[in-house]
Write a structure and sequence with these properties.
Layout (H helix, E strand, L loop, with lengths): L5 H26 L3 E6 L14 E4 L5 E6 L4 E7 L9 E7 L14 H4 L45 E5 L2 E6 L4 E6 L4 E5 L14 E4 L5 E5 L22 E5 L5 E6 L15 E6 L5 E5 L4 E5 L5 E5 L1 E2 L2 E2 L3 E6 L5 E5 L4 E5 L5 E6 L11 E6 L5 E5 L4 E6 L33
Antiparallel strand pairs: 1-26, 2-3, 3-4, 4-5, 6-7, 7-8, 8-9, 10-11, 11-12, 12-13, 14-15, 15-16, 16-17, 18-19, 20-21, 21-22, 22-23, 24-25, 25-26
């Protein structure tokens, strides 16, 4: 038997060390990766189906999930099973609204309301029961008075948020308004109507609230300017987009962007805003879809951060995002049919999915949220389903806002007074 030389022994030790190091690195990477767990719903019009849903949001306590079933013109409410390995993590509780306005409750005001004409999109909807054409009101027909629009129905709802654990805020996009709905279906209030002035809306898409109860609404506007279709560089000129901020009394207080300014790439110019999200510190996150980026602003409206691309990856029409309490960020990169996972340093750590219909693949994912137990919920719009992924554990994700500190009442000692003389 030959004895091992010093060089060969050193080589063996080095090899063992590299193997151990490689295994530890892989183990560390897999601990941060999200993997497919379960899929909920499928494309359709039944109670347990979704048809091109575009928005979802967890309640502040994480116990409920609201989903805008956009092309079914309804809102669906799910209860969330907090058990980490629950086989049915979502349970349908309520459905609000449905197809409308074809119930003849409001007399048609013009031909666009009375007849539903076919258009070039008809091939997208093979279902013969789908009603094509323009819905109740539109930019090409006259503005409909807000009081003549039924309160209990939607017209292509997109964004959804929560005012508190019992009140949902829905972007009733086709009706150019915000609806606040209680869990029992009661409409608490209607905010805004069609228009371009402050306090009015034109197809609002994203909505969120901060911990103080203020409401933030993302509003795009992609109409071309009349008589001036091209700028000096022969590029299409379109008007700008804005974020409207409403105080707790529902009065507009601040604006980010401007509805009547030009679109652009400046830090206060946007192109097709789709989502807005506010963290605990008041920082405002905006999905600037047309400029393929995510912008972050401080509470005083100063630019803080721009998330747009990495060394080997560039986003394409990011539609939504969510930020966990530990700083990790998930982005729905809709144009690339992928979900991006960023760490607290905004480094790209994982790319999930790709175009497809099988589990773990997406078609136009429009929304992504961190759920209870650190699960990742993806709204797979083109496939009409919600996909859930499990991976890194994010503790204390809910409640979203910190609980207010208890008010300590200090009892002041009253000065001693001499008793009055009795008679």
């Amino acid at each position: 038997m030959k004895h091992l030389t010093t060089k060969s022994l050193a080589a063996i030790i080095l090899t063992i060390f590299l193997l151990i190091f490689n295994i530890s690195v892989k183990a560390d990477n897999t601990g941060h990766e999200y993997k497919f767990f379960v899929s909920i719903c499928k494309t359709g019009k039944g109670d347990f189906n979704l048809f091109e849903p575009e928005g979802m949001c967890f309640s502040p306590d994480g116990q409920m999930l609201a989903v805008t079933d956009t092309h079914n013109n309804r809102l669906k409410l799910y209860s969330v099973d907090p058990y980490p390995l629950a086989s049915i993590p979502l349970r349908l509780e309520m459905i609000y609204g449905d197809l409308w306005p074809w119930d003849n409750r409001v007399l048609p005001g013009d031909s666009n309301d009375k007849y539903r004409e076919d258009d070039y999109l008809s091939s997208r909807y093979p279902d013969p029961n789908y009603l094509y054409g323009r819905a109740y009101q539109h930019g090409q027909s006259r503005i409909r008075p807000a009081e003549k629009i039924p309160m209990d129905h939607f017209n292509l709802p997109v964004g959804v948020g929560w005012l508190d654990n019992t009140t949902m805020l829905v972007c009733d996009t086709g009706n150019h308004r915000i609806k606040a709905i209680k869990l029992n279906g009661e409409v608490k209030f209607i905010l805004g109507q069609e228009g371009w002035k402050t306090g009015y809306f034109h197809h609002p898409l994203g909505i969120d609230t901060d911990c103080a109860g203020r409401i933030y609404v993302a509003e795009p506007r992609g109409n071309y300017l009349r008589d001036f279709p091209l700028d000096w560089g022969q590029r299409m000129r379109v008007q700008g987009n804005r974020i409207q901020i409403f105080d707790t009394d529902l009065k507009p207080s601040r604006l980010l962007g401007h509805m009547h300014h030009m679109c652009g790439r400046d830090y206060k110019q946007f192109k097709n805003l789709t989502r807005v999200w506010v963290d605990q510190n008041g920082d405002i996150y905006v999905a600037d879809n047309g400029n393929h980026r995510i912008l972050v602003f401080e509470n005083n409206m100063k630019k803080k951060e721009e998330i747009i691309k990495w060394e080997n990856y560039t986003m394409r029409y990011p539609n939504s995002f969510d930020v966990a309490k530990n700083g990790w960020m998930a982005i729905a990169d809709t144009g690339n049919h992928k979900i991006l996972m960023l760490d607290e340093r905004r480094e790209l750590r994982q790319i999930i999915g790709g175009f497809g219909t099988e589990n773990g693949k997406f078609i136009k994912p429009h929304d992504v949220r961190f759920g209870p137990n650190g699960d990742l919920y993806v709204l797979d719009t083109g496939n009409g389903r919600i996909q859930i992924f499990k991976g890194m554990h994010i503790p204390d994700q809910f409640p979203r806002c910190p609980q207010p500190e208890p008010i300590i009442q200090i009892k002041k000692k009253l000065p001693k007074t001499k008793p009055k003389d009795s008679f």
